[in-house]
Amino acid sequence: MNQGLNAVITGSTSGIGQGIAEAFAKAGMNIMLNGFGDPNEIETLRARLAATHGVRVAYHGADMTKPGEIADLMATAEADIGPLDVVVNNAGIQKVAPIEDFPVEKWDEILAINLSAAFHTTRLAIAGMKARGFGRIINTASVQGLIGSPFKTAYVAAKHGIIGLTKAVAMEGADYGVTANAICPGMVATPLVEKQIPDLARQSGLTEAETLADMLASNQPTRRIITVEEIGALATFLCSDAAKSITGAALPIDGGWTAR
User: What is the mean pLDDT of residues 24-41?
Assistant: First the structure.
Protein backbone atom coordinates (compact mmCIF):
# COMPACT_ATOMS: atom_id res chain seq x y z
CA MET A 1 0.00 0.00 0.00
CA ASN A 2 1.30 3.44 -0.94
CA GLN A 3 -1.25 5.36 1.11
CA GLY A 4 0.30 8.10 3.22
CA LEU A 5 3.65 8.25 1.43
CA ASN A 6 5.01 11.74 0.78
CA ALA A 7 6.38 12.51 -2.70
CA VAL A 8 8.09 15.36 -4.52
CA ILE A 9 7.54 15.26 -8.28
CA THR A 10 9.52 17.76 -10.33
CA GLY A 11 8.06 18.97 -13.60
CA SER A 12 4.59 17.84 -12.53
CA THR A 13 2.33 20.62 -13.77
CA SER A 14 1.95 18.96 -17.18
CA GLY A 15 2.84 15.89 -19.21
CA ILE A 16 4.41 12.81 -17.63
CA GLY A 17 4.90 14.51 -14.28
CA GLN A 18 1.23 15.41 -14.02
CA GLY A 19 0.32 11.84 -15.00
CA ILE A 20 2.48 10.54 -12.14
CA ALA A 21 0.95 13.07 -9.74
CA GLU A 22 -2.54 11.94 -10.71
CA ALA A 23 -1.60 8.28 -10.14
CA PHE A 24 0.09 8.99 -6.82
CA ALA A 25 -2.84 11.02 -5.50
CA LYS A 26 -5.24 8.25 -6.50
CA ALA A 27 -3.05 5.82 -4.53
CA GLY A 28 -3.36 8.02 -1.43
CA MET A 29 0.04 9.68 -1.56
CA ASN A 30 0.71 13.27 -0.52
CA ILE A 31 2.40 15.36 -3.20
CA MET A 32 4.58 18.39 -3.70
CA LEU A 33 4.00 19.60 -7.24
CA ASN A 34 6.65 21.56 -9.10
CA GLY A 35 6.81 23.17 -12.51
CA PHE A 36 6.01 26.20 -14.59
CA GLY A 37 2.68 27.27 -16.06
CA ASP A 38 -0.32 29.48 -15.53
CA PRO A 39 -0.71 30.05 -11.75
CA ASN A 40 -4.49 29.69 -11.88
CA GLU A 41 -4.25 26.39 -13.77
CA ILE A 42 -1.66 25.07 -11.34
CA GLU A 43 -3.81 26.00 -8.35
CA THR A 44 -6.81 24.33 -9.99
CA LEU A 45 -4.75 21.15 -10.44
CA ARG A 46 -3.45 21.28 -6.86
CA ALA A 47 -6.89 21.84 -5.37
CA ARG A 48 -8.52 19.16 -7.52
CA LEU A 49 -6.00 16.48 -6.59
CA ALA A 50 -6.34 17.31 -2.89
CA ALA A 51 -10.15 17.42 -2.89
CA THR A 52 -10.71 14.42 -5.13
CA HIS A 53 -8.36 12.06 -3.33
CA GLY A 54 -8.26 13.46 0.22
CA VAL A 55 -4.47 13.92 0.22
CA ARG A 56 -2.15 16.82 0.98
CA VAL A 57 -1.02 18.57 -2.18
CA ALA A 58 1.33 21.56 -2.20
CA TYR A 59 3.12 23.46 -4.96
CA HIS A 60 6.55 25.06 -5.29
CA GLY A 61 7.72 26.85 -8.42
CA ALA A 62 11.45 26.15 -8.08
CA ASP A 63 13.54 26.72 -11.20
CA MET A 64 15.37 23.41 -11.58
CA THR A 65 18.47 25.09 -13.00
CA LYS A 66 19.08 26.76 -9.64
CA PRO A 67 20.42 24.65 -6.75
CA GLY A 68 19.29 27.20 -4.16
CA GLU A 69 15.70 27.04 -5.36
CA ILE A 70 15.87 23.23 -5.45
CA ALA A 71 17.01 23.24 -1.82
CA ASP A 72 14.07 25.47 -0.91
CA LEU A 73 11.70 23.13 -2.78
CA MET A 74 12.89 20.15 -0.77
CA ALA A 75 12.78 21.97 2.57
CA THR A 76 9.32 23.35 1.83
CA ALA A 77 8.08 19.89 0.85
CA GLU A 78 9.22 18.46 4.19
CA ALA A 79 7.46 21.30 6.01
CA ASP A 80 4.22 21.13 3.99
CA ILE A 81 3.63 17.41 3.41
CA GLY A 82 6.04 15.66 5.78
CA PRO A 83 9.24 13.58 5.61
CA LEU A 84 9.95 12.61 2.02
CA ASP A 85 9.49 8.97 1.07
CA VAL A 86 9.57 9.39 -2.70
CA VAL A 87 11.38 11.72 -5.08
CA VAL A 88 10.45 11.67 -8.76
CA ASN A 89 12.97 13.53 -10.91
CA ASN A 90 10.89 14.26 -13.97
CA ALA A 91 11.60 17.86 -14.98
CA GLY A 92 13.04 18.03 -18.46
CA ILE A 93 13.45 20.13 -21.58
CA GLN A 94 14.52 19.35 -25.13
CA LYS A 95 16.20 20.99 -28.10
CA VAL A 96 16.57 19.48 -31.57
CA ALA A 97 19.47 20.68 -33.72
CA PRO A 98 22.62 19.34 -35.41
CA ILE A 99 25.55 19.38 -33.01
CA GLU A 100 27.43 22.00 -35.03
CA ASP A 101 24.45 24.35 -34.65
CA PHE A 102 23.51 23.36 -31.10
CA PRO A 103 23.32 26.48 -28.87
CA VAL A 104 25.89 26.26 -26.07
CA GLU A 105 23.53 27.89 -23.58
CA LYS A 106 20.85 25.33 -24.41
CA TRP A 107 23.31 22.49 -23.78
CA ASP A 108 24.02 23.93 -20.32
CA GLU A 109 20.31 24.38 -19.55
CA ILE A 110 19.37 20.85 -20.63
CA LEU A 111 22.15 19.28 -18.56
CA ALA A 112 21.14 21.39 -15.55
CA ILE A 113 17.44 20.52 -15.66
CA ASN A 114 17.56 16.97 -16.98
CA LEU A 115 20.54 15.71 -14.97
CA SER A 116 22.02 18.02 -12.34
CA ALA A 117 18.64 18.76 -10.77
CA ALA A 118 18.20 15.05 -10.03
CA PHE A 119 21.54 15.03 -8.22
CA HIS A 120 20.46 17.94 -6.06
CA THR A 121 17.04 16.55 -5.07
CA THR A 122 18.51 13.12 -4.37
CA ARG A 123 21.39 14.37 -2.24
CA LEU A 124 18.95 16.41 -0.15
CA ALA A 125 16.42 13.60 0.37
CA ILE A 126 18.42 10.42 0.72
CA ALA A 127 19.84 10.91 4.22
CA GLY A 128 16.33 11.06 5.67
CA MET A 129 15.25 8.05 3.64
CA LYS A 130 18.23 6.04 4.89
CA ALA A 131 17.52 7.03 8.48
CA ARG A 132 13.89 5.89 8.20
CA GLY A 133 14.75 2.70 6.31
CA PHE A 134 12.58 3.43 3.29
CA GLY A 135 12.87 5.51 0.15
CA ARG A 136 12.10 5.55 -3.53
CA ILE A 137 14.04 7.58 -6.09
CA ILE A 138 12.39 7.45 -9.51
CA ASN A 139 14.08 9.18 -12.41
CA THR A 140 12.35 9.86 -15.70
CA ALA A 141 14.95 8.92 -18.29
CA SER A 142 14.07 7.97 -21.87
CA VAL A 143 14.75 5.33 -24.49
CA GLN A 144 17.35 7.90 -25.50
CA GLY A 145 19.12 7.12 -22.25
CA LEU A 146 19.61 3.63 -23.67
CA ILE A 147 20.26 4.37 -27.35
CA GLY A 148 21.56 7.24 -29.46
CA SER A 149 19.48 9.65 -31.50
CA PRO A 150 20.54 12.34 -34.00
CA PHE A 151 20.08 16.07 -33.38
CA LYS A 152 19.53 15.58 -29.62
CA THR A 153 23.06 15.59 -28.24
CA ALA A 154 22.32 17.32 -24.93
CA TYR A 155 19.15 15.33 -24.26
CA VAL A 156 20.80 11.98 -25.06
CA ALA A 157 23.84 12.85 -22.94
CA ALA A 158 21.68 13.89 -20.00
CA LYS A 159 19.45 10.82 -20.19
CA HIS A 160 22.43 8.47 -20.37
CA GLY A 161 23.76 10.36 -17.35
CA ILE A 162 20.53 9.98 -15.39
CA ILE A 163 20.69 6.20 -15.83
CA GLY A 164 24.26 6.20 -14.49
CA LEU A 165 23.16 8.34 -11.55
CA THR A 166 20.30 5.92 -10.90
CA LYS A 167 22.65 2.94 -10.74
CA ALA A 168 25.08 4.69 -8.39
CA VAL A 169 22.29 5.79 -6.03
CA ALA A 170 20.81 2.28 -6.07
CA MET A 171 24.13 0.90 -4.85
CA GLU A 172 24.34 3.48 -2.07
CA GLY A 173 20.78 2.90 -0.91
CA ALA A 174 20.75 -0.89 -1.06
CA ASP A 175 21.51 -1.46 2.63
CA TYR A 176 18.90 1.06 3.78
CA GLY A 177 15.66 0.12 2.04
CA VAL A 178 16.12 2.87 -0.54
CA THR A 179 15.64 1.97 -4.19
CA ALA A 180 16.49 4.00 -7.28
CA ASN A 181 15.11 3.26 -10.71
CA ALA A 182 14.82 4.99 -14.08
CA ILE A 183 11.73 4.87 -16.24
CA CYS A 184 12.61 5.01 -19.94
CA PRO A 185 9.60 6.07 -22.02
CA GLY A 186 9.42 6.01 -25.79
CA MET A 187 7.11 8.48 -27.53
CA VAL A 188 4.57 9.83 -25.07
CA ALA A 189 1.72 12.24 -25.72
CA THR A 190 3.20 15.26 -23.90
CA PRO A 191 3.92 18.93 -24.71
CA LEU A 192 7.67 18.09 -24.82
CA VAL A 193 7.17 15.60 -27.65
CA GLU A 194 4.70 17.83 -29.47
CA LYS A 195 7.23 20.69 -29.50
CA GLN A 196 9.85 18.48 -31.19
CA ILE A 197 7.68 17.59 -34.18
CA PRO A 198 8.00 20.91 -36.09
CA ASP A 199 11.81 20.93 -35.71
CA LEU A 200 12.10 17.31 -36.82
CA ALA A 201 9.75 17.95 -39.74
CA ARG A 202 12.00 20.78 -40.92
CA GLN A 203 15.05 18.52 -40.63
CA SER A 204 13.38 15.72 -42.63
CA GLY A 205 11.43 17.79 -45.16
CA LEU A 206 8.18 15.99 -44.24
CA THR A 207 4.94 17.41 -42.90
CA GLU A 208 4.37 17.26 -39.16
CA ALA A 209 1.78 14.49 -39.55
CA GLU A 210 4.15 12.50 -41.76
CA THR A 211 6.96 13.03 -39.27
CA LEU A 212 4.92 11.67 -36.36
CA ALA A 213 3.71 8.67 -38.36
CA ASP A 214 7.24 7.96 -39.55
CA MET A 215 8.64 8.20 -36.01
CA LEU A 216 6.10 5.70 -34.71
CA ALA A 217 6.54 3.30 -37.61
CA SER A 218 10.33 3.48 -37.40
CA ASN A 219 10.72 3.30 -33.64
CA GLN A 220 7.77 1.79 -31.75
CA PRO A 221 6.63 -1.61 -33.04
CA THR A 222 3.26 -1.14 -31.33
CA ARG A 223 2.76 2.01 -33.46
CA ARG A 224 0.89 3.75 -30.68
CA ILE A 225 1.70 6.71 -28.48
CA ILE A 226 2.35 5.82 -24.84
CA THR A 227 0.02 7.48 -22.33
CA VAL A 228 1.00 9.32 -19.18
CA GLU A 229 -1.40 7.03 -17.30
CA GLU A 230 0.75 4.02 -18.20
CA ILE A 231 3.84 5.74 -16.85
CA GLY A 232 1.98 6.83 -13.72
CA ALA A 233 0.98 3.23 -13.06
CA LEU A 234 4.59 2.03 -13.36
CA ALA A 235 5.85 4.79 -11.04
CA THR A 236 3.17 3.93 -8.48
CA PHE A 237 4.18 0.27 -8.55
CA LEU A 238 7.83 1.20 -7.99
CA CYS A 239 6.79 2.92 -4.76
CA SER A 240 5.16 -0.23 -3.39
CA ASP A 241 6.61 -2.96 -1.17
CA ALA A 242 6.16 -5.35 -4.10
CA ALA A 243 8.92 -3.45 -5.91
CA LYS A 244 11.43 -3.44 -3.05
CA SER A 245 13.84 -5.72 -4.94
CA ILE A 246 13.73 -3.63 -8.12
CA THR A 247 16.61 -1.18 -7.91
CA GLY A 248 19.23 0.18 -10.27
CA ALA A 249 16.99 -0.69 -13.21
CA ALA A 250 16.40 1.24 -16.42
CA LEU A 251 12.84 0.18 -17.25
CA PRO A 252 11.70 0.72 -20.86
CA ILE A 253 8.07 1.58 -21.43
CA ASP A 254 8.55 2.14 -25.12
CA GLY A 255 6.25 0.01 -27.27
CA GLY A 256 9.16 -2.28 -28.14
CA TRP A 257 11.53 0.47 -29.30
CA THR A 258 14.59 -0.96 -27.50
CA ALA A 259 13.66 -4.57 -28.37
CA ARG A 260 14.98 -4.12 -31.90
Answer: 98
